[in-house]
Specification:
Helix 1 crosses helix 3, helix 1 crosses helix 4 and helix 2 packs across helix 3. Helix content is about 40%, strand content about 20%. The chain starts with 7 loop residues before the first helix and ends with a helix. The strands form 3 sheets. It has a 5-stranded mixed β-sheet. The protein is α/β, with parallel strands linked by helices.
């Protein structure tokens, strides 16, 4: 039968009663009398031509026909209520554009985005990636997460997460000593001092990398896992790969070359959304570093 032949009130009464299997509780939810609920269900049963409920010694039960349609009818009204709730929210979401260095997005932020959405549904978070070179004063972004020492001009920088660099490679290399690196292809970032600083911290002879150069650690580590060479990158951003065994950290030596910061231009007024995003990011990093 076409849906237009059925009363929404009758169908709603059936949806609620089939969920409670109790006429009194159904009447309370619908804010009508128990007799009114019974009348609406009987009217629906008359249209259908079959009983939808059975009244037994154990109480109200769904008939076979009622069981067949109950879940679908309940779901339909839940979806309708959800759609109408959107109309009741007259406050438009506040757009907030966050530029993020790709390695931090991969290793920390991506898996936490559902939590932000659940906690702050009124903020329309827009994510852009960059290679650690971003101009907050001219680009149409509200804030940026970048790696470095935090000493950027006319920028407010909030420390997020320490990320010391260490040697990362595929398990097939089986490195035993830092000196073994002299026979390896050393992958490079745009920071030329990383490998010399690590070699000094490891107490080995200077290392002079001549391997391919990458503008993002996440790409460099992917190349290392593929066997293209050895990467120097923050292990904290590649826990999944290390835990799975696809990547190994052959040495405990780490060198501090900077950390991740949340930055915004001092030339623009901080918005309420910025305060929310900053608090959420700082709290998430505190939890991550405490593990």
């Amino acid at each position: 039968m076409p849906l237009a032949r059925y009363s929404l009130n009758h169908l709603h009464a059936f949806a609620v009663a089939s969920r409670h299997l109790n006429m009194t509780r159904a009447a309370d939810e619908l804010c009508v009398t128990q007799a009114a609920v019974s009348h609406q269900i009987k009217a629906l049963e008359a249209q259908v031509g079959k009983p939808l409920f059975l009244r037994t010694a154990r109480g109200l039960q769904l008939s076979d026909e009622g069981e067949r349609i109950a879940a679908a009818v309940q779901q339909a009204f839940e979806q309708l209520e959800g759609a109408l709730a959107l109309l009741e929210d007259s406050t438009p979401p506040e757009r907030f554009t966050l530029a993020v260095v790709g390695t931090y997005l991969h290793g920390h932020l991506l898996e936490r985005l559902p939590d932000f959405r659940a906690r702050h549904p009124t903020i329309d978070l827009r994510i852009q990636t960059h290679n650690n070179k971003v101009d907050l004063a001219t680009e149409t972004i509200d804030a940026a997460i970048r790696f470095g020492d935090g000493a950027w001009r006319r920028v407010e920088a909030t420390p997020l997460q320490a990320a010391p660099l260490t040697v990362l490679c595929s398990p097939g290399l089986a490195l035993k000593s830092p000196q073994d690196l002299r026979r390896c292809t050393l992958l490079r970032s745009y920071r030329s001092d990383d490998w010399p600083a690590w070699a000094q911290a490891a107490g080995c002879t200077p290392l002079h990398p001549r391997g391919p150069q990458f503008d993002a650690s996440v790409l460099m580590v992917q190349a290392a896992m593929a066997g293209a060479g050895v990467a120097l990158a923050p292990a904290v951003m590649f826990r999944r790969e290390l835990d799975s065994g696809r990547l190994v950290q052959p040495f405990d030596v780490e060198v501090d070359a900077g950390r991740y910061w949340l930055t915004r231009s001092l030339g623009r007024e901080a918005t309420a959304a910025f305060g929310v995003v900053r608090a959420w990011l700082v709290a998430g990093c505190a939890g991550g570093e405490s593990r």
